[in-house]
Design a protein that fits this description.
The protein has helices spanning 2-8, 22-26, 43-52, 92-103, 127-139, 149-157; strands spanning 12-16, 35-40, 59-62, 76-82, 107-118, 161-168, 171-177. By secondary structure, it is of the alpha/beta class. It has a single domain, classed as Vaccinia Virus protein VP39 (Rossmann fold), CATH 3.40.50.150. It has a 7-stranded mixed beta sheet with strand order 3-2-1-4-5-7-6, sandwiched between helices. Strand 2 (35-40), helix 3 (43-52) and strand 3 (59-62) form a beta-alpha-beta unit. Helix 4 runs parallel beside helix 6. The chain is globular. The protein starts with a helix and ends with a strand. The mean pLDDT is 95.
């Protein structure tokens, strides 16, 4: 995943579903002072990630990625959405298409939307993974029991071009362009 950040991050980057900000902290930025915006529904995640990369003075936006968001006139060279889709409610094709549709207007003409998600179908989970998947889906933390590679590809391809999806273990790594 770090290799993907290194390959895709641009001078102007939006990270959606920021987690702890580890990848943003450890990736190789193409410029010394990237312009980074963090978008997440969870205030705690925004705080942790923002503090971790404070040397870049990131902007933060607390919002739900499934709702239209106004990011103004800025166009991002890259948008990262790692480990996000499996946490969103609904079926994967719809989730991927909705998020891509909402974020696409903010991609630069040569921009890339990339990320990862945990698949529920068509992949092998080990015993611990199966147990955690059931528990997290039952608690509503995840919504991915029916998520598969085909749904991800179709959802992204309905809004983006050049969509690539690689499955590694139970995780789908994806990228698509404007």
């Amino acid at each position: 995943m770090l290799e993907r950040y290194n390959a895709y991050v641009g001078e102007r980057h939006l990270d959606v579903g920021v987690g702890t900000g580890w990848f943003l902290d450890h990736c190789n930025w193409p410029v010394e002072t990237p312009q980074i915006t963090l978008l997440d529904l969870n205030e705690n995640s925004l705080s942790v990630a923002s503090k971790r990369i404070r040397r870049y003075a990131p902007a933060t936006i607390q919002a739900n990625v499934l709702d239209p968001v106004d990011l103004g006139d800025v166009r991002f060279d890259s948008i990262g959405a790692n480990y996000l889709f499996h946490c969103l409610p609904g079926e994967l094709e719809s989730k991927a298409a909705t998020v891509a549709s909402i974020l696409r207007p903010y991609l630069a003409s040569d921009g890339v939307l990339f990320g990862s998600t945990i698949l529920g179908r068509g992949v092998r989970h080990n015993l611990l993974g199966r147990r955690l998947m059931r528990l997290y889906n039952r608690k509503g933390i995840f919504s991915n029991l029916e998520d598969d590679q085909r749904g991800l590809e179709q959802g992204l391809a309905s809004k983006l071009t050049g969509v690539e999806v690689d499955v590694v273990g139970a995780v789908a790594l994806f990228a698509g362009r404007q």
